[in-house]
Specification:
Elements: E1 5-7, E2 29-31, E3 35-40, E4 46-52, E5 58-59, E6 71-75, E7 80-83, E8 90-95, E9 99-108, E10 111-120, E11 126-132, E12 163-167, E13 175-180, E14 183-186, E15 204-205, E16 208-212, E17 218-223, E18 227-230, E19 237-242, E20 245-246, E21 252-253, E22 259-268, H1 272-283, E23 298-300, E24 302-304, E25 310-316, E26 321-327, E27 333-338, E28 344-348, E29 354-358, E30 360-363, E31 366-372, E32 377-384
């Protein structure tokens, strides 16, 4: 499918095609051409191994007190830590040649959960889709607090008691990078742990965090929720799933429904640029639609070359189409390919005021707009037909 465009496909049936055979449910494995993932049903369906096939069979998961995919938190009403690995889970394979999924059904502290771990053909990301069906309103946090409005020592700051899911890998202890709107930052904190207003740290994950060793091997963690992450010496990288109790300004944050979250893991060898590019697939997936009638089979309206620059927005106005480009990954020369119907282009400021007319070159029925943009540069253009 071309950039900022579409492609049409006709779905048919092939004579003699056979339905895929169901996989052996006792194997407790899913795989594609990139990974082989093994699950442990006796420990709540945690992942016991991820073999990287393209790297000579290297094992991604490292040994740790906390397993890969283990959920653990402190339930203060019961005064006990509960873990999803404390009770066995039932595992069932789903999918076929294009998508292979393991459905894990277990409990954490007696509360049922269902998690689907999926691999897609040709896709380097490992996808997680989690739902926890809470029974009642359990309190989850380091301690039960009733004075958060005045006490700088606060339970909801302390990540140790939150219900977190952990991902132990060989990248633990490495440098951590994370994205922000039109930015990428490197964390300078040795630990994300704090429990007092005076020691507050930035431990927010917007879309992704990337943990990297000195040899360049790393892991990116993606989340569909803006939540907090865990990165503490001696503990694996983790993602916060749930807190329940007294919070900011003394409000009581009760559990009033199931927890539903999607997250993903990407083994990386190409630095945080790889995570930034993968974020587009995560946040802007292709949208399928069934259509009828005849029409063009494919088309692209606006395409940015593979320099890492991205089309941040496109807005239809009375004057034309206003596009905003963002260049997070470096490379000063950016080439934008436009549909041949565009006749003029103007660079504008962010308020829409024209700065100067941009040159358009015609080539093979397309128009080319070239711009010079450094790392983290933002530029806005008005395109007219």
């Amino acid at each position: 499918v071309p950039a900022f465009g579409f492609a049409a496909y006709r779905i048919g049936f092939r004579d003699g095609a056979k339905a895929p055979k169901p996989e052996d449910a006792g194997a407790y494995k899913i795989e594609n051409e990139l990974y082989e993932i093994t699950f442990d049903p006796e420990r709540g369906g945690v992942i016991s191994g991820i073999v990287l096939k393209k790297e000579g069979g290297r094992e991604l998961v490292r040994e740790s007190d906390l397993a890969f995919g283990e959920m653990k938190g402190y339930f203060y009403d019961e005064k006990v830590f509960h873990s999803s690995a404390d009770a066995p889970a039932t595992l069932e394979k789903e999918g076929g040649d294009l998508v292979s999924t393991m459905r894990v059904k277990g409990t954490v502290g007696g509360h049922p959960f269902c998690q689907r771990v999926s691999l897609r053909k040709g896709d380097p990301m490992i996808y997680f889709d989690l739902e926890i069906d809470w029974q009642g309103h359990p309190g989850i946090g380091t301690f039960k607090q009733s004075d958060a409005a005045v006490n700088p020592h606060r339970s909801f700051y302390d990540e140790k008691g939150h219900l977190n899911i952990y991902f132990p890998t060989s990248a633990d202890g490495g440098a951590l990078y994370k994205n922000a709107p039109f930015d990428v930052s490197r964390s300078v904190n040795d630990s994300t742990r704090f429990d007092d207003w005076h020691d507050i740290k930035h431990n927010i994950i917007l879309n992704w965090v990337y943990l990297s060793r000195e040899d360049g091997r790393g892991i990116a963690l993606f989340s569909d929720h803006t939540t907090t992450y865990v990165n503490t010496p001696g503990s694996p990288l983790g993602l916060t799933l749930q807190y329940s109790g007294n919070g900011l300004w003394g409000r009581d944050y009760l559990i009033d429904g199931p927890t539903k979250m999607k997250f993903a893991v990407l083994p990386c060898n190409g630095g945080w640029d790889e995570a930034e590019k993968a974020d587009r697939r995560w946040n802007e997936p292709l949208v399928p639609a069934f259509t009828g009638g005849e029409g063009p089979s494919t088309g692209s309206f606006i395409s940015v070359n593979d320099s890492g620059c991205e089309l941040s927005s496109a807005t239809l106005t009375e004057e034309g189409i206003r596009i905003r480009l963002y260049n997070p990954c470096g490379g000063k020369k950016v080439k934008v390919l436009l549909d041949g119907s565009f006749t003029e282009a103007f660079e504008t400021d962010m308020r829409g005021n024209v700065l100067h007319k941009a040159k358009l070159r015609s080539r093979h029925g397309q128009k080319q707009l070239r711009a010079r943009m450094g790392r983290h540069a933002i530029k806005t253009f008005l395109l007219k037909r």
